[in-house]
Write a structure and sequence with these properties.
893 residues, alpha/beta, Isoleucyl-tRNA Synthetase, domain 2, Isoleucyl-tRNA Synthetase, Domain 1, Ubiquitin-like (UB roll), 18% strand, RNA-binding
Length: 893
RNA sequence: GCCGGUGUGGCGAAAUUGGCAGACGCACAAGACUUAAAAUCUUGCGAGGGUUAAACCUCAUGUCGGUUCGAGUCCGACCACCGGUACCA
């Protein structure tokens, strides 16, 4: 395929100029702007600027990538292109745009590569970052590279550790509903010993140590958070995960469950994403009910969302791991119960989910008393009751819960109907809302009234209370890995204490062997000198999970080189919008894939809310608006993967068609949020379009001279571009015709509206429509061409800027800072409009009608039409509908 | 099962408040230019019928039904696919 235009010369040239002039640097309050910077020229600012002088902020953020060894695939730049187009658009509209990029570079692949080859993860990571950066830069994104962050850089993770210490030194005060310094925690006077007081404190910190059943992945040699386990396998690598009790660092995210849920109402995220977070947090409202154990002191507390069905509770079930089982089991059932517990504990999570859900369980010999009717009901254990949810015990109401019913049928337990289903439905097995029956004081009440009445009754009798439960678990925060942030924690005599903030960062030791030790200690334990301090303290040898660095990187961008703080207060207030009432609170737009819907996005919101409570940030939510890009499938419509051999490498596309064509195609494929298949033929289509734009402005004969000059120049010097001259149709000092203005302004209108609505594909088609018309113009006013290039600039910045330079008759300037064109509605008004005419809703004719024709004259015109006459002949007109400017419909019979 | 999303030509898609279904692009076909090819330009292109050619007619937005002068768009039921989630009491 013949080259449409010399993108291979233009693109490196424009990128070089952007780099040299720091064209896309975003300015913080208090910074000194050189007066020749295009931002200074556009806004008439120079020198040191105060926040009040700066234009409104627009913070547009990409999810920063993990720099993998395989480099960028075409899915990454989809989101990056969308944000870059908007960043350029907003700059043109006069905003101070913050558009940064960085690297989420701690992670498993570099460490596993290190274990295999002995190459230090630092080396691997640096090589991968430089490859990613080269690829991203080749696409001409307008990032402010002076703010680049790397989570593995000690200047960065120093502050990750610092924030961890903030969590460590805080507790959640239920009364103020806020995270507060641990110093505000009142220690009960009853605690006599120093140990007791310390552990009282330690148990309440937001970062705490807990002995808990964790997800252990033997293959990876580490524990995983619940969020990282998918179908009983590790999210990374798909290795089996088993449950195992271990002592680990946890973060008290559950304290923020309510805030994390309520905060979703303040932000503009898609419904599906909010739903995913809501489901993960899993709020359910109901009651706690206390059951006295028959002939014993113990009380079993259950959680239920249906207290109204308490009269129908015919047995109880405890999780096999429930703490009371040992005390309650009767002598004759002991062996059988023990056998069942072994049986269920041996089941891995994988087996539990894979096995057909045949209910199993065993009676433990004891009975409980149903508080409402004093009935003795048997107590069973079964693994369909989870120790990790609610109280680990349930009251079983088989008539109105499908799992309880299945269990009751298998083990012949009584089933008692207490809710009457609506007409036509079977009450047994009915789980919806109905009317209470067989329930004494609840009889005849609808479910919605029976619930609160039962809760009142229980509270009065001290047999229960209202209760809200969350599915969300505390965040398991430690990993047995090398390539992560070390914890700023020291241990001595079984007690932990924080490293002082002034001693940060705690950098990892130098290792040659990155495997865990033979006795199962994390790899950091291999560095005896590093781990054992002179005073006898031992460093924590766990590291933080990969999510730690991504929990706050969007804040570091605001003030990336600040040595004294994680982020300066003034910068934070300006960019996060709290300094300006009209600004969006938080990141204005955050774009990334759905794979982070619960993990990263929940964790980052949690950290942000802690920082907010501690008055370190000024907004309650980090990301105001969030959009998920859809995935790009291979040409075969399948997910791209190496094994299918359908992966498209952006490098190949860029070298064949150029970055501008690549960007344009990524956006032209379809709506950003949809998943859609790649088609390289489609790249050729937009590439041809860019070629038409080029030829619309450049003299084709001068291209021959240019090509010849280039052919003999081994350096392929960009200076050869000076051989190019303007197309002879380009005229300066000429008024555009009304038709030309109409085409141009229709294009301005459509592109502007589509950019505001993030409809990039239709914006591009509007520009194609304009160019298809403009290539037929005999005379092309330079002014029209310049305006069009301003519209094209966000999408195809290299080409637009180069051509714009030619039209300026000087090769200077960054059109990214040109004011965005304003469309004039007056130019779009048509003298006459073509109105479709329908008979009984079927199109029969089109008539030219003057713009301001009234109803009567339109009717007259319509009835005079031969085609219409033929269609209504012999029928009577029932109705004649005229929608001015739209259409006419005649109803006949 | 539950939650969310999506179904429109051969393909990617468009139709922003209910108002001309298929813009724009790909693929394909024919023609022009060329010794030839590539590139470029022009024309055609939902299906079926009809005509020398047109005109014109019928059908068509996953399926079935409804509301309306008028439905891709609104309502009801269903089907398929994609994503999330799952013994959550």
């Amino acid at each position: 395929m013949r080259k449409q235009y010399p993108f291979d010369i233009i693109e490196p040239k424009r990128q070089r100029i952007w780099d040299e002039t720091a064209a896309f640097k975003a300015w913080n309050p208090g910074e000194t702007i050189p007066k020749n910077h295009p931002f200074a020229e556009r806004h008439g600012l120079a020198g040191e600027v105060a926040a009040s002088q700066l234009p409104p902020k627009y913070y547009i953020l990409d999810m920063f990538p993990y720099p993998s060894g395989s480099g960028l695939h075409v899915g990454h730049p989809e989101g990056y292109t969308a944000t870059d187009i908007l960043a350029r658009y907003k700059r043109s509209r006069g905003f101070n745009v913050l558009h940064p990029m960085g690297w989420d570079a701690f992670g498993l692949p570099a460490e596993q590569y290190a274990i295999k080859t002995g190459q230090h993860p630092r080396v691997t990571t640096e090589a991968n970052i430089s490859n990613f950066k080269r690829q991203i830069k080749s696409l001409g994104f307008s990032y402010d590279w002076s703010r680049e962050v790397d989570t593995t850089d000690s200047d960065y993770f120093c502050w990750t550790q610092w924030i961890f210490l903030k969590l460590y030194h805080s507790w959640f005060n239920q009364e103020t509903n806020k995270a507060e310094s641990i110093e505000t925690l009142t220690i009960p006077s009853g605690l006599e010993t120093e140990e007791a007081r310390t552990s009282y404190k330690d148990e309440r910190r937001l970062a705490f140590v807990a002995e808990a059943p964790v997800n252990w992945c033997p293959e990876l040699g580490t524990v995983l958070a619940n969020e990282e386990v998918v179908d009983g396998k590790s999210e990374v690598g798909g290795f089996p995960v088993v449950r195992k009790p271990m002592r680990q660092w946890m973060l008290r995210i559950t304290a923020f469950a309510g805030k994390l849920l309520d905060g979703l109402d303040e932000i503009e995220w898609s419904d599906s994403l909010k739903e995913m977070q809501r489901n993960w947090i899993g709020k359910s409202e109901g009651a706690e009910v206390h059951f006295q154990v028959a002939d014993a002191q113990e009380v079993i507390t259950v959680f239920t969302t249906r207290p109204d069905t308490l009269f129908g509770a015919t047995y109880m079930v405890l999780a096999p791991e429930h703490a009371l089982v040992d005390q309650l089991v009767t002598e004759e059932q002991k062996d059988a119960v023990e056998e069942y517990r072994t049986f269920s504990s041996r089941k891995s999570d994988l087996e539990r989910t894979e096995l057909a859900k045949e209910k199993t369980g065993i009676f433990i010999g004891a009975y409980a008393i149903n508080p409402v009717n004093k009935e003795r009901i048997p107590i069973w254990i079964a693994d369909y009751v989870l120790s990790t949810y609610g109280t680990g015990a349930i009251m079983a109401v088989p008539a109105h819960d499908s799992r309880d019913l299945e269990f009751a049928e298998k083990f012949n337990l009584p089933v008692l109907k207490v809710v009457k289903a609506p007409e036509g439905q079977d009450s047994i097995g009915f789980v919806g809302e109905g009317v209470s029956v067989n329930s004494d004081f609840l009889n005849d009440l609808p479910t919605c009234e029976a619930k609160p009445k039962m809760i009142d009754w229980l509270s009065e009798k001290k047999a229960g209370s209202r209760r809200t439960n969350f599915k969300l678990r505390d965040w398991l925060f430690s990993r047995q890995r090398f390539w992560g942030e070390p914890f700023p924690i020291l241990w001595k005599d079984g007690q932990h204490r924080a490293v002082g903030a002034h001693e940060l960062p705690v950098t990892p030791p130098d290792l040659k062997d990155f495997k865990p030790t033979s006795d199962g200690e994390p790899p950091l334990a291999r560095a005896a000198e590093w781990a054992n301090l002179k005073d006898g303290s031992i460093r924590e040898t766990n590291t933080m999970p990969q999510w730690a660095g991504s929990c706050w990187y969007y804040l570091r961008y605001l003030d990336a080189s600040n040595k004294g703080m994680f982020c300066g207060k003034e910068a934070e207030a300006y960019w996060m919008g709290s300094a300006d009432e009209t600004a969006n609170p938080g990141v204005d737009l955050y774009v990334g894939g759905t794979e982070h819907a619960v993990l990263h996005l929940l964790y980052a919101r949690f950290w942000h809310k802690v920082l907010y409570d501690l008055e370190l940030v000024s907004t309650t939510e980090p990301f105001f608006k969030l959009v998920n890009q859809g995935i790009i499938l291979g040409e075969d419509g399948q997910k791209m993967s190496k094994s299918r051999g359908n992966v498209v490498n952006p490098d190949e596309i860029v070298s064949a068609y150029g970055a501008d064509a690549f960007r344009l195609y990524e956006m032209f494929m379809g709506p950003l949020e949809m998943s859609k298949p790649w088609n390289t033929k489609g790249v050729e289509g937009v590439y041809r379009f860019l070629g038409r734009v080029w030829r619309m402005i450049v003299n084709e004969e001068s291209e021959v001279a240019f090509d010849q000059a280039l052919a003999v120049d081994a350096q392929k010097d960009e200076a050869n571009l000076s051989k190019l001259t303007l197309n002879s149709t380009i005229k300066f000092d000429i008024e555009p015709t009304p038709d030309q203005l109409k085409s141009l302004h229709a294009c301005i209108k459509k592109v502007t509206e589509d950019l505001d609505g993030m409809r990039f594909n239709t914006a591009i088609s509007a520009m194609m429509v304009f160019v298809n018309e403009a290539v037929n113009w005999k005379v092309r006013p330079a002014e029209c061409m310049r305006t069009f290039l301003t519209l094209l600039q966000p999408f195809a910045p290299h080409l637009a800027e180069e051509l714009h330079g030619m039209l300026q008759e000087e090769n200077a300037g960054v059109i990214a800072y040109q004011p965005w064109p304003v469309f004039d509605p007056a130019l779009l008004i048509e003298e006459s409009v073509e109105m479709p005419v329908q008979v009984n809703g079927k199109l029969r004719d089109r008539l030219k009608v003057s713009r301001d024709a009234d109803r009567q004259s339109i009717e007259k015109l319509v009835l005079a039409s031969e085609k219409i006459k033929a269609n209504i002949e012999g029928k009577s007109i029932k109705k004649l509908i005229v929608v001015p400017g739209k259409l006419v419909n005649i109803v006949v019979k």
